[in-house]
Amino acid sequence: MIVEIISIGTELILGDLIDTNAAYIAQKITASGFNIHYMTTVGDNRDRMVDTLARAIKRSELIITTGGLGPTDDDLTREAIAESTGCPLQEESELLQHLVNYFKQRNYQMTANNRKQVLLPEGARIIKNQLGTAPGILLEKKDYTIIAMPGVPGEMQAMLTTEVIPYLKKYSKDLIKSRVLKFFMIGESTLETQLKDILERQTNPTMALLAGRGEVKLRITAKASSAQKADLLLDRAEETIRERTAQYIYSNNDQDLAEVVGQLLEKKGLTLALAESCTGGLLGNRITDIPGSSAYFSGGLVTYSNQSKIEQLGVQVLTLEKHGAVSRESVAEMAEGVRNKMSSDLGLSVSGIAGPGGGNAEKPVGLIFIALADREKTVTYRHKLHRDRIWNKWMSSQYALYYLYQYLTKI
């Protein structure tokens, strides 16, 4: 079945709102065993909406719309569906009574424009809206089906999961499951080259490379008659990929690196303390974004100035004078200092030049150093980043977490 999602709203076209509805619908519909071929966005213009629906009717069998079902003049989805399908709008007495009761129970005055919400295209059925006044629309025709849902995310999500997905199950005997492998320290083009023959012969499961934030994702999608059979297909595909690229994979369920690291710290019963300079607390923020991180995170210090490094971490004045704050020597003392101060098993530190200023020929913008200290040794790492300040800070935190991940997987 060819599925098309149409998002309706001028606020989406102008960029005033991000279209989270289409992504949510796509995830749920795909997981239910359907193939989405098209996603379209159209503003609140009746002629363009009719044209968009007419094109969808010609090429798709299931058309799902979101938005434009409210009571105001720019809510035109009902009218557009009626015109594009040749099914005139009719007032539904059941809907009208429901709407009257809705306002009466809340002691609200029902304005005249709300009455348009009780209009349905001829032959259409109501999709219940448990959270709002605008019902959804289900119109089944010989060659296609149109499902229209509200644009309010909460209303749409509830309607989709409780009403629409159960209805659609009769059209699909299969289910679709996906698994996302996450890679670090390898670029998208290099990964594609290493997996080129696998990607070219894919059928079921299918695979798609996705660029992440300083990392690469590979989504594996399997279609099967049961979850068990889908998992078997996913397992086989993942095993084939790992035979070539296992050293770059840190997750197979789309987890953030900070979450993976946190699980390893908790599993191994280790505690972590952080000393941050150029990241300004970003590393600690990522760690503490994970629920339950207090089980393994002792705390962190943002020592931005040289003086704070000396006073808070015990970095030697001579070290800073001889090597500077952005150096292997300084980050090593930072990691050791915070580990001792917090009485933690591990100390992780980062210092660098985030930019855009502050660099020179010897230490250019984007240069970062990372150190990881345990009770026996301290290891340092050097990287040169090449983008703007925000990116350099993010990637500094990502490299720091990755080196911690590598350490934890080897002990």
Task: Give structural attributes.
six-stranded mixed sheet; Maf protein; 41% helix; alpha/beta; Alpha-Beta Plaits; five-stranded mixed sheet
Can you put this structure into words, describing what you see?
This protein has helices at residues 10-13, 20-31, 46-59, 77-85, 93-105, 153-168, 188-194, 196-200, 227-245, 257-268, 282-288, 306-313, 317-323, 328-342, 389-410; strands at residues 2-8, 35-42, 62-66, 89-91, 119-121, 125-127, 136-140, 145-149, 175-183, 206-211, 216-224, 249-251, 272-276, 297-302, 346-352, 367-373, 378-384. With 411 residues, it is α/β, with parallel strands linked by helices. The protein folds into three domains: 2-171, Molybdenum Cofactor Biosythetic Enzyme, Chain A, CATH 3.40.980; 175-251, Alpha-Beta Plaits (2-Layer Sandwich), CATH 3.30.70.2860; 257-410, Alpha-Beta Complex (Maf protein). A six-stranded mixed β-sheet has the order 2-1-3-8-7-6, with helices on both faces. A five-stranded mixed β-sheet has the order 14-13-15-16-17, sandwiched between helices. It has a four-stranded antiparallel β-sheet with strand order 10-11-9-12, with helices on one face. A hairpin with a 4-residue loop joins strand 7 and strand 8 (145-149). Helix 2 packs parallel to helix 6, helix 3 crosses helix 4 and helix 10 runs parallel beside helix 15. The longest helix is centred in the last third of the chain and has 22 residues, at 389-410. It is elongated and about 85 Å long. The mean pLDDT is 95.
